[in-house]
Recover the amino acids of this structure.
């Protein structure tokens, strides 16, 4: 049997290489083989730190008898959802026609043309409480394929049509490329926050019951509104953040946050720890001024997820071997001293471009806010690693040379980069540029953002999407809503708005609105599912406020006076760095220099600036309480 997964860039696929199942990686060859044999396709989607993926692998995919049955009657494809997010999103959309309990492992049965006709998630090895066993499911699928092929194809065609219909419009308006609406206005945003407040768990914090998720995109919305004077949103965010910081969702030893809690009071976590969650929560606790919690998250990122290359692993597993016995979460019940004698849970060492961009941006902002230069240095090192390994030394920053999506030990995956990668990396690089004063990061970010607008004005990642999905007539980017992390569109729009505040160019703001056009029509009525989209809308509705501190060294007292300001774009640069930004086309820095040799602050709104400020007390008074930390109710 061919071991097609053994040399994969994905640790998840490598973990299945020795299964008795004859797995194929995602690609045209697997579907061609299914067509040649006239058999259905099993598409099994998961990721390396997914607990129930491990369970199903041990129970079913490791069973030689079941594997032989699969090999004889199906073509089996194994997909890492993090390596191929468009594939995952497409099949999640298809699976929603068959089950309301979406998640991973995602188990989808398709025709040789890739059209889904049945789907579910985890299936047990034996029937349990009315749930069919995986063998029973497989047999039912094969019986339908053999005896009721017309029904199967009719179902597959209907689901495929629904998936295609779910595709977002790729540009503003009718796709003409003309600038569209700037999204929900003030009244809609107030109503969205009120709706979220109605969902608040006043006893334990956050929204919902159990399982309880951090929902960082919604926290981003609340904090964005709070930065511009919405005291109800700000207070809600602080109650939520305080509840999580004091709960079992946070690892008291290593500082990082777990994926979610299985109980309403944030206890009994699902113990995997993701880079995406922790990057977003680092940004949130930084905005809230909670240095202690932020430091714990930064410590987890730097001490646990940081790889020797300087880039960051995508996640840490929930399972580990304690004294030779497999344990789900047992490592995290140990004290620091007890952990020292035990191996840490494994990392998924796959480096994801967009995720690393999110980590870079969060570390850069936190380092600038709390005066932690080592965090900014780590962010810069990670950015340099990703740029060198995921773009190539001759094409870094060249929009004509698409990014790589992922790599492992420096070896790059063939999976195409997505809007998450372009937007996530661009946003991180811009925040790093503001924290370091290094214009090269901002120039590269601008190239990445501009590469995502096509000649006809549509917004998509260069390269045209996953080639297998495209050949099957499906656009993998079917959902503009935000899940546990911002959608690729929201990440790109966030970066484009930040860029617009630095360049003053209307086309960058228009790119942000075009990217979000598919979400803005429904976001305000579903705020818990569109937190990042509404955070973009909140920024579009607010004045464009900017602060540039020009000083030699670290900015001194003027920088300290403005460190907690959250209402807009803040940069601390030397005179030479300001000149470098200006010459590269970043209008915000034009004419910014020292006044009479003293450190000088420039406070602007929409590029219209007050007189230069050299007195820290005067600057603090001008900035006022907006965006500062009110007491938590």
């Amino acid at each position: 049997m061919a071991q097609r997964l053994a040399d994969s860039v994905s640790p998840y696929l490598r973990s299945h290489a020795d299964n008795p199942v004859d797995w194929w990686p995602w690609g045209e060859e697997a579907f061609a083989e299914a067509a040649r044999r006239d058999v259905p396709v099993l598409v099994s989607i998961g990721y390396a730190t997914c607990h129930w993926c491990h369970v199903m692998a041990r129970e079913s995919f490791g069973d030689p008898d079941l594997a032989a049955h699969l090999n004889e009657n199906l073509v089996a494809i194994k997909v890492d959802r993090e390596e191929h997010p468009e594939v995952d999103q497409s099949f999640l959309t298809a699976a929603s026609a068959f089950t309301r309990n979406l998640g991973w492992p995602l188990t989808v049965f398709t025709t040789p043309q890739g059209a889904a006709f049945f789907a579910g998630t985890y299936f047990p090895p034996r029937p349990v409480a009315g749930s069919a066993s995986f063998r029973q499911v497989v047999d039912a699928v094969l019986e339908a394929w053999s005896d009721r092929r017309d029904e199967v194809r009719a179902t597959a065609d209907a689901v495929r049509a629904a998936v295609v219909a779910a595709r977002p419009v790729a540009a503003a308006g009718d796709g003409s490329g003309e600038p569209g609406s700037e999204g929900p206005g003030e009244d809609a945003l107030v109503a969205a926050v009120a709706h979220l407040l109605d969902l608040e768990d006043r006893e334990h914090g956050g929204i919902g019951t159990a399982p309880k998720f951090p929902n960082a995109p919604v926290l981003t919305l609340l904090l964005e509104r709070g930065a511009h004077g919405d005291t109800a949103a700000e207070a809600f965010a602080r109650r939520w953040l305080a509840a999580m910081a004091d709960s079992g969702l946070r690892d008291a030893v290593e500082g990082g946050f777990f994926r979610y809690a299985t109980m309403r009071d944030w206890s009994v976590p699902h113990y995997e720890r993701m880079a995406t969650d922790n990057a977003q929560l680092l940004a949130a606790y930084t905005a809230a001024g909670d240095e202690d919690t932020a430091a714990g998250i930064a410590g987890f990122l730097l001490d646990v997820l940081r790889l020797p290359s300087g880039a960051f692993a995508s996640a840490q597993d929930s399972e580990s071997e304690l004294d030779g016995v497999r344990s789900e979460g047992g490592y995290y019940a140990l004290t620091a001293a007890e952990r020292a004698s035990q191996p840490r849970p494994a990392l998924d060492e796959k480096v994801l471009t967009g995720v690393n961009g999110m980590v870079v941006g969060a570390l850069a902002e936190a380092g600038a806010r709390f005066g932690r230069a080592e965090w900014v240095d780590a962010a810069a090192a990670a950015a340099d690693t990703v740029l060198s390994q995921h773009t190539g030394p001759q094409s870094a920053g060249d929009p004509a040379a698409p990014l790589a999506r992922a790599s492992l030990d420096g070896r790059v995956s063939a999976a195409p980069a997505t809007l998450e990668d372009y937007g996530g990396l661009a946003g991180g690089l811009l925040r790093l540029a503001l924290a370091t004063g290094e214009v090269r990061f901002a120039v590269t970010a601008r190239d990445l953002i501009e590469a995502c607008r096509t000649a006809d004005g549509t917004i998509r990642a260069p390269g045209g999407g996953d080639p297998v999905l495209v050949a099957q007539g499906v656009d993998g980017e079917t959902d503009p809503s935000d899940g546990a992390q911002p959608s690729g569109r929201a990440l790109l729009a966030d970066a484009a708005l930040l860029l617009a505040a630095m360049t003053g160019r209307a086309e960058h703001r228009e790119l942000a609105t075009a990217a979000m056009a598919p979400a803005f029509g429904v976001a305000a009525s579903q705020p818990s599912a569109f937190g990042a989209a509404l955070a973009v809308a909140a920024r579009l509705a607010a004045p464009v406020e900017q602060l540039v501190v020009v000083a030699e060294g670290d900015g001194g007292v003027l920088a300290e006076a403005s460190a907690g300001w959250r209402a807009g774009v803040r940069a601390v640069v030397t005179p030479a760095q300001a000149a470098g930004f200006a010459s590269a086309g970043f209008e915000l820095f034009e004419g910014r220099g020292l006044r009479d040799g003293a450190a000088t602050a420039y406070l602007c709104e929409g590029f219209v600036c007050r007189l230069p400020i050299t007195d820290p007390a005067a600057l603090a008074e001008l900035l006022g309480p907006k965006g500062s930390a009110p007491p938590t109710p």
Summary: The longest helix spans residues 373-391. Residues 169-179, 626-633 have pLDDT under 50 and may be disordered.
